[in-house]
Records
---
Amino acid sequence: MQEQINDKTVALSVKAAKITGRLLAKAMQDFLKKAREPTYKKGKQSIKSLTKQGASLSNIEITGDNIGDFKRIARKYNVDFALKRDDAESPPKWLVFFKAKDADALTAAFKEYTQTKLKVKEKPRPNFLAKIQRLRQKAKELAAPVKHRTKGEHEL
C-alpha cells in the first residue's frame, strides 16, 4: 500500500531590516496563534453553529408574517441568532434562538421591530399611483391653455 502524504505550505511575510531566528520564530508563533483561534459566524446561522460557540441559548417566539424585517433589524444590532420554524400550530410560529449574552441587544432590536410594525399599522401608506394621478390633475388645472398660432401670426 502506498502512504498518502499531505503537504501544506504557508506563506509568511515579515517586514524587518534584519531577519533573525528569534524574529522568524516570533512571526511563526503569532501566525499559529491566530490560526488556532476558532472563527465564529455572525448574524443569522444554524442552531448547531450557535451552540458550538459555547454560550447558553435563549429563545423567543414570533410570528412568521414579517420575518424578513426582523432579520434586517437583528443584523443592525449585531445579534447572533438562529431561526427555527415550529409547524405544530396551524399558523406556523418561528422560534428565534440567540445567545444569552446578546439578550440586551435583542431586546433593543425587538423594541425597534415592534415600533416599526406599530407605525405601519397606524398610518397606511398612500397609493403611489393615485398620488401621481392627483398631481397630474393639479398640473392640468394650473397650466395655462396652449394657444395654437396660425402661419404668420405673432404674439405681442
---
Amino acid sequence: MDTLEMIKHRISANKFDTSKSLSEDEIKDLVAYAAHAPSAFNIQHWRFVAVTKPEEKERLKAVAYNQQKVADAAVTFIVLGDLRGHEKLGEILQPFVASGNMPQGMADGWVQTTAQMYSNPQLARDEAIRGASLAAMTLMLAAEAKGLVSGPMIGFDPEGVKQAFGISDQYVPVMLLTVGYAAPGNWPRKPRLSVDEVMQFESGKDL
C-alpha cells in the first residue's frame, strides 16, 4: 500500500488482538519514526511513555475512564508535550553547527529567541501540544505501514495520568495512543467532510 492509500485506509481502532504483542525493539522503532516529525525550531517537544505491562495498563486504564482498549492494545503510549523543550535547543543544534550546516551565531540566535518566546506559558503549552500531535500522527502512519492499527484518545484524566505515572509538571499529557494488531469488530473509516467544506482559496465565504 502506498502512502496516499495508507492515509485513506487508516482507522482509529477500538478492538485489538490481545494474543499479539510488540517487542521493545518494535516499539522503539515506531518512536524512531515519530521522531522524524517536524517541530518549531527543531525543538522536538514530544516525549513518549510506552505502557506495555498488564498491571501498568490497568493503572492507565483506571485514569482513562476504564476504556478496555488501553489494556488490550499491544502498547498504549502516553504522548507528552515538553513545556521546557526549548531549554535543550543549544544541545540539539550543536551537531548541525559542527557539520557546517548552521553558523554558530544563528544557533545562538535561535536559543535566545526561543527563550523569550516560550517564557509565555500559553505559547509554550500550545507549541508543546502542536509538536507532540505531529509526532503522534507520524507514529500512527508508521504503525499503519507496519500492518498495525492505532487509536488516538482524548478520553483520560490528564492529572490522574501524571500522578499515576510520576510525570512532572514540565510535561502536558496531549493524548493516549493505542497501537497493536487489529481484532474483528473495528468500524470502517468514518465519513469525512468534503474539501469544499474545510478549505477555501484566499478569500470568499467564511468556512
---
Amino acid sequence: MIDNQEIIIAGFGGQGVLSMGQIISYSAMKEGKEVSWMPAYGPEMRGGTANCIVIVSPKKVSSPIVTMFDSAIILNQPSLEKFDSKVKPGGLLLCEESTIITPSTRKDIEILTIPAVAEAVQMGKRQIANMILLGAFLERRPIVSIANVIQALREVLPERHHHLIPLNEEALRTGQKFAETHKTNNVEQQAEVI
C-alpha cells in the first residue's frame, strides 16, 4: 500500500469531483492516516469548474496547498489543460475518456484513460462514473482499501441513498478491473486507452 499521495481531482461541477475527494479523505481517516481535503469551485453548482486537492500521509500534513501532484484524476479537457503540467515526473494522470479531446503528450508520467461514463451508462447510472475512476485510481495507487471506501460510503451517505451502495461497490470493482488489466510498465509509454 502507498503511504503518501498528493492528488488533484478536477472537472465540472456535478461530476462527483468533490465527493470523490471526500470519500478518499474519509477512507484514509478510517485507516488512521493524516488527511487534507481542500475544495475549490466556481459560483455555479453544476457545469462550473470544480477541483479538490487531497493529501493522504502517515505524518501530519504541513500545508493543504500544493502546486505539484503525485496523481491527477481529470474529468474534462479544461482541467487537463490546467493540471497536466502539474503532475510530478513518474506520477499518474487518470482521465475520463469521453471528455478528453486532446490527450496529454507527456512521456514522463503514467497515463490511463478510462471510459468511465460509457461504463456507468451501461451499468444503468451515469452518476457512478466517478466511482469507476476512483476504483481505477485505487488499483494504481492503493492509498486506502476498497473495504474502507465502502464503509466510508455507509457513514457519509444519507440513509435514503444506502440502496445505491452495492452499485457504487460494483463501480469501484469495475474501475479496479480496468486498471488491473491495462497496466503500463513504463512511464515512457505516452498513453494507454482501455
